[in-house]
Specification:
Radius of gyration: 22 Å
Order of helices and strands: HEHEHEHEHEHEHEHHHEHEEEEEHHHHHE
Number of strands: 14
Mean pLDDT: 90
Strand order of the largest sheet: 13-12-11-7-10-9-8-14
Strand content: 15-25%
Helix content: 25-40%
Structural class: alpha/beta
Largest sheet: 8 strands, mixed
Shape: globular
Low-confidence stretches: 1-41, 44-55
Length: 475
């Protein structure tokens, strides 16, 4: 049940029964036999870019979600699961967007739900339903009949289960990155989105950064010529935060450095570059080769800053302090991804794009394109603001919230798409693609850099051009 405007329902999106989905999904997931190695453990070196990757593509169970609009509704009813650093701040942005109601909040820490509920009331909305009865109370939340979107901002381990539960209960779901930690989980989310006709979206805020959106529009306008290469990263010194006893709710983020050797957080860098290159919209990511340094940074920081009585001294960190991955696309383009949260480094997402007419590089922002520039000297990127800034940034010149306003732009646009019944800017295929480097980089590093196949989560739909973040302003 939703608050859809009369006469505007797209009946093709009606979801099958929860029992039907549960019965069929379990069998397919089991038959696929997927995990960290499957679909990624097979070297892709022999495959030509663009070649059909049928061995890595299980049969489709439903219909594609590419290009499927939301149901139109006058009010978007949102439930927020996870009220820590991220969810506790994002609730303010949902409350700041017109036509949005926060109807339920969930976190096993009761005090956090109470703080969130107070924010909702202070914003002039009815007090939301509160779910704080243990780690699995989100399941009860998802069974409610008055929720349109479940927003998930919890530790990574739980993203898959929560997204799955939301869709099985007929809810659209937006998940903080990464979408899931295993390839079989990514495939199951793709299949569930198609079967339930519910959107499952990786809410990648960096795709809505002001610079990123300007570069995107310039790329689509041909200012860089034929695109050749790009780079993105998450290079952010998190040592102090990962060892802080209060910043995260427990050591969950640091513990991933004892489990995986690869790129744990590729989405911030991969998402924007994938948009520039129209990945899943005319091109696709085919393979990834990853290399990692020794794991020394966290242990050295612990030695210098953490008391010997701390439980972290029982942990052993594995490669890699810095992971460098090379992604090749079907059109032969190359994308470099980096991840480093364990060594001293000024914050950088790299955010670079190059083509036959020039190049952009961020941190700091600079550009060189022909025929505008000459003498091999970097030029002022802000000179392109007026012509190429996205309409969202022109409409919201000083958005509230963190990360330079990109969080609010992302929430505003998602809520706008849901209210007006538009196609979302990105879908489950994008989220799966941007997250696939998590298990695949781990597999590649274990295989000494051997390339790993990136599955075609779209099952062939990537060859078709379609809209994305470079959207047209609604009338």
């Amino acid at each position: 049940m939703n608050d859809a405007a009369p006469g505007n329902q797209d009946r093709s999106q009606d979801s099958p029964s929860r029992r039907t989905v549960l019965r069929t999904t379990a069998g397919v997931a089991g038959a696929a036999g997927l995990g960290f190695g499957a679909l990624g453990g097979t070297p892709a070196a022999a495959a030509e870019p663009g070649a059909a990757d049928t061995a890595a593509t299980p049969p489709r169970q439903g219909r594609t979600m590419a290009g499927v609009p939301f149901e139109r509704r006058s009010t978007v009813r949102v439930a927020i699961v996870g009220l820590g650093n991220r969810g506790g701040s994002m609730i303010d942005l949902f409350l700041a967007v017109p036509g949005v109601r926060v109807v339920a909040v969930c976190d096993p820490v009761k005090a956090k739900t109470e703080q969130a509920a107070a924010k909702v009331v202070q914003a002039g909305q009815p007090s939301p339903a509160v779910y704080a009865n243990g780690e699995n109370d989100y399941e009860n939340l998802c069974e409610r009949g008055d929720i349109d979107l479940v927003y998930v901002a919890t530790p990574w381990d739980s993203h898959f289960a929560m997204a799955r539960t939301a869709m099985l209960n007929g809810k659209h779901v937006g998940v903080e990155c990464p979408l899931a930690m295993r390839l079989d989980e990514l495939w199951e989310l793709v299949d569930l989105s198609e079967r339930t006709r519910r959107h499952c979206m990786q809410l990648e805020n960096c795709c809505y950064g002001k610079n990123e959106m300007r570069v995107l529009r310039m790329a689509h306008a041909g200012k860089f010529g034929e695109l050749l290469h790009g780079a993105g990263a998450y290079n952010h010194d998190l040592r102090g935060l990962m060892f802080s006893p209060t910043y995260y709710e427990g050591p969950w983020r640091r513990l991933w450095h004892t489990r995986l050797r690869g790129d744990l957080y590729p989405n911030h860098g991969f998402g924007p570059v994938a948009n520039y290159m129209d990945i899943n919209r005319g091109d696709r990511a085919v393979s990834i080769s990853s290399f990692g340094t020794p794991a020394l940074g966290l242990a050295e920081y612990r030695e210098a800053n953490v008391d010997r009585s701390d439980p972290s001294w029982k942990e052993t960190y594995i490669e890699s302090d810095r992971t460098i991955s090379m992604v090749q696309t079907a059109k032969g383009r190359v994308i470099r991804l980096e991840h480093d949260v364990s060594t001293p480094h000024p914050y950088s997402r790299i955010n670079s794009l190059g083509g036959t007419k020039g190049v952009f590089e961020d941190y700091p922002a600079r550009i060189y394109i022909e025929p505008d520039h000459h003498d091999d000297q970097w030029a002022d990127f802000s000179a392109y603001a007026g012509e190429f800034d996205h309409w969202l940034w022109k409409e919201h010149a000083n958005p509230p919230g963190g990360h330079g306003g990109m969080d609010y732009i992302m929430v505003f646009r998602l809520m706008q798409c849901m209210r007006l019944g538009l196609v979302p800017d990105f879908d489950v295929y994008d989220g799966a693609t941007w997250t696939a480097p998590v298990p695949l980089s781990h597999a590649s590093i274990k295989a000494k850099g051997a390339p790993q196949r990136i599955p075609d989560f779209t099952r062939g739909e990537w060859t078709k051009s379609r809209s994305g973040v470079d959207s047209v302003k609604p009338a």
